[in-house]
């Protein structure tokens, strides 16, 4: 924004521009839009940002984002705690829950192994997954990372760690288009991929 | 977001989805992104929103958004205060300032006359424009609203009010493509439109 603009507006536009997929032009439009919102709506927006950051943290068991000590899925006795579906990020949990067909638990890695980006296995929630296998009666671990180079490598790495522990390790069926993004798969494709999972 | 998600995350996604051009899917991605931001970055983001709303208001003279009582353009003695460029919104001021070719002042209407949307002339900053003509030595008013139905109607309405006051009223040259949006015009087109303005 040019220097005739009010500084708080320029700062707000710069903040919006930091968000993924939001360029400077869109950021400016959003900043102007905030100016047209009511006082209480603006307060609610700012509160929502702070509350989400302050009140939400990782589940002590599956590492998914939650407000409680243990997330609703891990705390649900009706779910099958002998199956763990390992995913890259919390939004993948949302994608599987949308199918309505999976009744096991999850484990969120919060990333994928990617040496080029400096992400090593130690940066992911792998140790907490191994700990679960020792404390819970787990019979199967489903590797549900994206069908990309990093997703495949991470699935293989974890599978090799788990095999000696005597647990069945399976991989999502490749009904998913290779190179695609799990989050955008439709419910039926995702359910088929889950149903046809193969042992690695 | 499904009900297994933490409530503060759902609330934040709903807040993002209220912004123009941001759908529920993008809103969810942004909410997850906020979770991955550092504590201080999140605080800075929330502060920027509140500060913009609290510290920025309309200039007492031209009604453009500013932090001060009078905006930097209205308060600049080197600018030509005998010419007023009337625009729909603050972002149009930014567009003209980018040309670097206009040295007069502005007047921001904060909307266009649109009976279908229930916007009447009384809802716009037209009264404050008429007041300026009485207190400032204005010789020309340039109607620089968008070349759309509402923009044309608003320009014509204001021109008819101003003519009896003995001031020259001009309209941007139609170098601008009809039906287009002023904000997205390139600098040269906008400068040409300004240069070839015609008396209405």
Automatic annotation (TrEMBL), chains A, B:
Designated name of the protein: Recombination protein RecR
SMART domains: TOPRIM
Zn-finger (C4-type) residues: 59-74
Keywords from the UniProt entry: DNA damage, DNA recombination, DNA repair, Metal-binding, Zinc, Zinc-finger
HAMAP family on file: RecR
Source taxon at top rank: Bacteria
Organism listed in the record: Ruminococcus champanellensis (strain DSM 18848 / JCM 17042 / KCTC 15320 / 18P13)
Sequence similarity: Belongs to the RecR family.
GO BP terms in the entry: DNA recombination; DNA repair
């Amino acid at each position: 924004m040019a220097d005739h603009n009010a500084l708080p507006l320029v700062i707000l536009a710069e903040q919006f521009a930091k968000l993924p997929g939001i360029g400077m032009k869109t950021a400016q439009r959003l900043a102007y839009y905030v100016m047209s919102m009511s006082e209480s709506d603006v307060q609610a927006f700012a509160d929502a940002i702070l509350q989400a950051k302050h009140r939400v943290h990782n589940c002590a068991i599956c590492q998914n984002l939650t407000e409680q000590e243990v997330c609703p899925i891990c705390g649900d006795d009706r779910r099958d705690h002998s199956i763990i579906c390992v995913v890259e990020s919390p939004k993948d949990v949302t994608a599987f829950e949308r199918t309505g067909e999976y009744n096991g638990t999850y484990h969120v890695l919060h990333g994928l192994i990617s040496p080029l980006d400096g992400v090593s296995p130690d940066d992911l929630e792998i140790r907490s997954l191994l700990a679960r296998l020792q404390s819970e009666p787990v019979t199967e671990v489903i590797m549900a990372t994206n069908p990309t180079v990093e997703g495949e490598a991470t699935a293989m790495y974890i599978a090799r760690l788990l095999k000696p522990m005597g647990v069945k390790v399976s991989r999502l069926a490749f009904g998913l288009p290779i190179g695609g993004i799990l989050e955008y798969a439709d419910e039926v494709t995702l359910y088929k991929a889950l149903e046809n999972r193969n042992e690695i």
